Amino acid sequence: MQPSAEVAQRLARLSAHLNPEHPQVGESSSLMRNNCRAKGGAPGFKVAILGAAGGIGQPLALLMKINPLVSVLHLYDVVNTPGVTADISHMDTGAVVRGFLGQAQLENALTGMDLVIIPAGVPRKPGMTRDDLFKINAGIVRTLCEGISKCCPHAIVNLISNPVNSTVAIAAEVFKKAGTYDPKRLLGVTTLDVVRANTFVAEVLGVDPRDVSVPVVGGHAGVTILPLLSQVKPPASFTPEEINYLTDRIQNGGTEVVEAFAASKFADACMRGLRGDAGIVECSFVASQVTELPFFATRVRLGRSGAEEIFPLGPLSEYERAGLEKAKKELAESINKGISFIRK
Ligand SMILES: NC(=O)C1=CN([C@@H]2O[C@H](COP(=O)(O)OP(=O)(O)OC[C@H]3O[C@@H](n4cnc5c(N)ncnc54)[C@H](O)[C@@H]3O)[C@@H](O)[C@H]2O)C=CC1
Ligand SMILES: O=C([O-])CC(=O)C(=O)O
Description:
Blueprint: H1 5-18, E1 45-50, H2 57-65, E2 70-77, H3 81-89, E3 96-101, H4 106-110, E4 115-118, H5 134-151, E5 156-159, H6 164-178, E6 186-188, H7 191-205, E7 216-218, E8 225-227, H8 240-251, H9 261-275, E9 280-287, E10 295-303, E11 306-310, H10 318-343
Parallel strand pairs: 1-2, 1-4, 2-3, 4-5, 5-6
Antiparallel strand pairs: 7-8, 9-10, 10-11
Helix pairs in contact: 2-9, 5-6, 6-10, 7-8
Bound molecules: 1,4-dihydronicotinamide adenine dinucleotide and oxaloacetate ion.
Binding site for NAD(+): 51-57, 77, 137, 160-162
Family: Belongs to the LDH/MDH superfamily. MDH type 1 family.
Catalytic activity: (S)-malate + NAD(+) = oxaloacetate + NADH + H(+)
């Protein structure tokens, strides 16, 4: 008797697993080379993390593997992806995990992706600013974005690598050069500023951070991070001392601790937008006409094509208006630095 189609498929998969012909570096098992599809669940999105073996990349990979919106998860790095991929791939959730190691595998990592998340590059050491990372990370982001424009030009890109205030401009220039630029699809990740703002404001108010929403606008470094405490929801008022304390703590939170939770939260919001959910609003650093600068972080509505609507700043307090001027001055320099890196 002939085995059923399903049994035949299972036997083929088992045989491929037991007899790996030419193991490829960076793939966690021969099952992954069979182009197998995630079983069960919604159709899901194909997500690549570039820099997946790093401090942000690894926990982010774990969080994406448990996200039911993800059907395929590609983990790319220049080191250590085989181990990380093996680890993540053993989790009993739906997404199929594949690992890719080194530049030669970048194109395979990117082909067919719906969402590309980029935490690749060097992080700050104590005493450094995010701008101090420009020298190394600018080139890394350029190479990765060249790959994106070639292999998945319609993917949504979540850019985490610092300095975000410059790397978003770098990515935009690379995409423009390649003729693939869609401003709605390029999003600098500033969610961590919002997550911190919600947490610190909730601490001051003595409420649950999940019930608090603080818009954070501008950019993602020092004074360019501008929490709009006058627009906190639910409405709350703060003393001048509280405003100084909160603004300073939110602007400098990155020197306390960095974390992947916010990156995962933002990626999840992008996928819910892609799926067509209504009313998905997050802060992000995007191409914008809210100010005279070409990029600016404000609340944006995420939809099927990325950042579909960019909300204005709303009424600002005097303190926030002064902060906005400082933020714009530094932001303009960071954005120009990114643009000239590619145009030079
Ligand atoms: N936007 C945001 O809210 C945040 C941004 N960051 C930034 O994210 C970046 C990564 O931070 P961590 O994960 O802590 O650093 P990390 O050093 O732990 O990890 C970075 C990873 O990138 C990889 N990498 C280096 N060059 C690469 C290349 N050419 N292609 C692919 N991967 C490459 C490294 O091998 C490493 O695994 C830093 O620039 C950091 O400042 C970090 C936290 C929050
Ligand atoms: O501060 C850093 O170096 C990393 C980062 O962007 C953050 O944690 O907000």
